[in-house]
Write a structure and sequence with these properties.
heterodimer; A: 238 residues; globular; B: mainly alpha
Chain lengths: 238, 224
């Protein structure tokens, strides 16, 4: 627990540094100016989301192969982090879009496909909430999770084919893409800190899921014991 | 028993069950028809606009109809506790899922065969020269719909609020299928009808990916 608190404090200090760097150290962007600074939060959040999605996919496959309940805990934790990152990413994107593009939203390939991704993982969480039996919940949601992660690249590909006039990505988007070195350093700092936060939350969420499971097991045991004692005392009376 | 033979037997069972009452088919046809008619109030169905919006509307009608119609596929087994009987039968899980997929494909094909001519009449779209090509697009699109839909029907059958849950799971997954099917149909409804091979290949790819996934994962759908 001490390690956990120390880690959280360390990360909090790190967040302050990264926030300061993003707001004051990073150079002004030539066309978008201050608005562009949301980029230091927006893009790392997506990277954190992709980390969480990969973890979720691995956990889903591992659960189906091994049926060890810990993989289910990891799966649901990762999907929750995915949904949170996706929500923050979409909202910060919308906030950036208004001043930068003049519109809140456009049905461009990236935006549309991440929106569908968000819906898929929200559906995953809804599905989990509606199945009672823990084993069955784990298996069926893992199957759905695998279908969702197979769908994600197809969604993106279809939207790219469908709407070709999308703005090209800043990173890995071709020879004209890329950023100034000063920006890259600040960006790297923000990327590491936000990924660390996501992983920390994921680990905490995993621990919470484990505690819930243990609590449920203990509760059932207590109930069955009290039933046993009731049964025994009932017998004595007769 | 081989998977093919088991699938044939299970398919025959599904068809017999449905064609005894035809309740699912008739309800789905009427539902799809209602969607198509309601859309005529949402925009003015002149020939020009029909060509523009028609394909989208047709596929939305099929997707909605499919997401409602696929629920009983496993929901019925669950309600009557007959899934255990199927589990005990000496057939592979994949045969059970595949039999249902084929049955659902036939049901939806029947719905489409009724709905498409009605749609052509109501929205002034001449289908004369494009029937065969339209059938290919419809077949590939419907395949994707029933593959994912049957799997999700098996998933949602175990949940509460299952009627509502199935469209929630299914419709976002089908977003790329909708794009591809609509784009392919738009090409067919144009003045110079032509079949876009890119979108056809895309539809086929979608079907193959999810068919393979259902094949690999079918054991988990049926397991106790």
């Amino acid at each position: 627990m001490k390690v956990r608190i120390a880690l959280a404090l360390f990360l909090a200090a790190y967040v302050i540094c990264a926030g300061y760097a993003a707001l004051f150290v990073a150079p002004d962007e030539s066309t978008m100016h201050e608005v562009q600074r949301i980029f230091y939060m927006h893009v790392p959040v997506w990277i954190a989301m992709y980390i969480a999605i990969s973890v979720a996919f691995v956990a889903n496959v591992a659960w189906l192969r091994t049926h060890q309940i810990k993989w289910d805990w990891l799966g649901v934790s990762a999907v929750e982090v995915t949904v949170v990152c996706c929500t923050i990413g979409l909202i910060s994107g919308v906030l950036w879009g208004r001043p930068a593009w003049g519109i809140w939203w456009t049905w461009d390939a990236r935006l549309t496909s991440t929106f569908i991704l968000w819906m898929l993982y929200v559906a995953y969480l809804l599905l989990r909430g509606l199945i009672e039996d823990p084993q069955r919940k784990a298996t069926l949601s893992a199957v759905f999770g695998i279908f969702a992660s197979l769908d994600a690249p197809i969604v993106y590909f279809s939207n790219r084919l469908f709407r070709t006039q999308h703005p090209s990505p800043v990173f890995f988007g071709g020879p004209d893409s890329g950023i100034a070195p000063e920006m890259a350093r600040v960006f790297l700092l923000c990327m590491v800190v936000i990924s660390c936060i996501a992983i920390l939350i994921l680990v905490d969420r995993y621990r919470l899921e484990r505690l819930r499971f243990e609590y449920e097991e203990l509760r059932q045991e207590v109930e069955s014991r009290s039933l046993d004692s009731q049964f025994a005392s009932g017998k004595d009376k007769s | 028993m081989t998977t093919a033979r088991a699938t044939a037997i299970l398919l025959a069972k599904e068809l017999r069950l449905e064609f005894r009452t035809r309740e699912l088919l008739s309800a789905t046809v009427v539902f799809a028809l209602i969607v198509v008619v309601l859309f005529s109030f949402a925009f003015n169905p002149t020939a020009e606009e029909s060509r523009q919006y028609g394909p989208g509307l047709l596929w939305i009608a099929f997707l909605f109809a499919g997401s409602l119609m696929l629920h009983p596929s496993f929901g019925r087994e669950h309600a009557n506790d007959t899934l255990d009987a199927l589990r005990m039968a000496p057939v592979s899980s994949f045969a059970i899922v595949l039999g249902k997929m084929l049955a659902n494909f036939i049901f939806l094909a029947v719905v489409e065969a009724i709905l498409v001519p009605v749609f052509g009449v109501l929205y002034n779209i001449s289908l004369a020269g494009i029937v065969a090509r339209l059938a290919i697009v419809l077949a590939l699109g419907t395949m994707g719909l029933v593959i994912t839909g049957t799997v999700f029907s098996a998933i949602s059958a175990h949940a509460r609020m299952r009627e509502l849950l199935l469209p929630l799971l299914l419709l976002p997954i089908l977003a790329p299928l909708l794009i591809a099917a609509v784009e392919a149909t738009v090409g067919l409804f144009a003045d110079q009808p032509q079949l876009d091979r890119t979108w056809l290949a895309f539809l086929a790819g979608f079907d193959i990916v999810f068919f393979t996934a259902s094949w690999i994962l079918s054991d988990f759908l049926i397991e106790e």
